[in-house]
Write a structure and sequence with these properties.
Layout lengths: L1 E6 L5 H11 L4 E4 L6 H11 L5 H26 L3 E4 L2 H14 L8 H9 L8 E6 L2 H8 L4 H21 L4 E5 L4 H19 L1
Parallel strand pairs: 1-3, 1-4, 2-3, 4-5
Helix pairs in contact: 1-8, 2-3, 3-4, 4-5, 4-7, 6-7
Bound molecules: adenosine-5'-diphosphate and thymidine-5'-diphosphate (TYD).
Catalytic activity: dTMP + ATP = dTDP + ADP
Family: Belongs to the thymidylate kinase family.
Protein name: Probable thymidylate kinase
Length: 201
Amino acid sequence: MLVTLEGLDGSGKTTVWEAVHERYTEAVFTREPTDDSWYGDAVYRSIEDDDADPLAELFLYTADHADHLSRVIEPALERGDLVISDRYSDSRFAYQGATLAAAENHDLENPLEYVVDIHDPFSITPDLTIYLDLDPETAATRAGTTNKFERAEYLESVRDNYERLIERDPDRFVRVDATQSPDAVLESVTDALAAAVSDSS
Ligand SMILES: Nc1ncnc2c1ncn2[C@@H]1O[C@H](COP(=O)(O)OP(=O)(O)O)[C@@H](O)[C@H]1O
Ligand SMILES: Cc1cn([C@H]2C[C@H](O)[C@@H](COP(=O)(O)OP(=O)(O)O)O2)c(=O)[nH]c1=O
C-alpha cells in the first residue's frame, strides 16, 4: 500500500513523517526529491539555481520520480510493504503546474494537466494521500523563507492546484488541518493511516 504526504513547504510534513516512523516501524519511509541518488542531487542543484528553466526542472523532478519508482517504490510494493512517502507526484502536479503557469518563456494551455499526463503512462497512483492544509503565509513563515511575501504568493497558486487535485480525486485524499498543534496533526494523520491500513487488510 502506498501512502503519500503532501502540502506546502512548512506545512509540517517532515515533522509528521518522522513521528510516524515510531508507530509504523515495519513501513518503508521514503521521500521526493530523493536524498540518496544523483537524480535527487540534480533536482537540488536546480532548486538552488534561480535561473533554472521551469520545463527542464519538471523533467529533472520527473526523472528522479522514475528512478524512485523503479528503485524503491515498486520493489517495496511487490514485497507487500506499506510505503510512506514525504511528497510524491502531487507535488509535481501542484508546484510545477504553478511554476509553468507563471513561466513567461512557456505557453502551455493547461500546465497542471500537462504534468499529470506526463506521469500517466508510468507512475503509480497512491492509495491514500494525506494533505496537510495550511495557509501560504503561515507556511512561508514556518518554512523560514528569506523572501516571505514572494514565496507566499507562489504558494497561493500551489495551494489552488492542490485544491484542484483534491476536487478531481476526492476519495484518495484526506485533508488534515495543519494549523493544529503538532500532536493534534499527528493524531489526525495516524487516524487516517490506521483506517486505510485496516481497510486494505
Ligand atoms: N503543527 C505545527 N504547528 C506549529 N509548527 C509546526 C507544526 N508542525 C511543524 N512545525 C514547525 O514548522 C517548521 C516546518 O515543519 P516541517 O515539518 O519541516 O515542514 P515541511 O516538511 O512540510 O516543510 C518546523 O520548524 C516545525 O518544527
Ligand atoms: C517532490 C517535489 C518537490 N518540489 C519542491 C517543494 C519544495 O519547495 C522543494 C523541496 O522539497 P522538500 O525538501 O520536501 O521541502 P519541504 O520539506 O520544505 O517541503 O521542492 C517541487 O517543486 N516539485 C516536486 O515534484
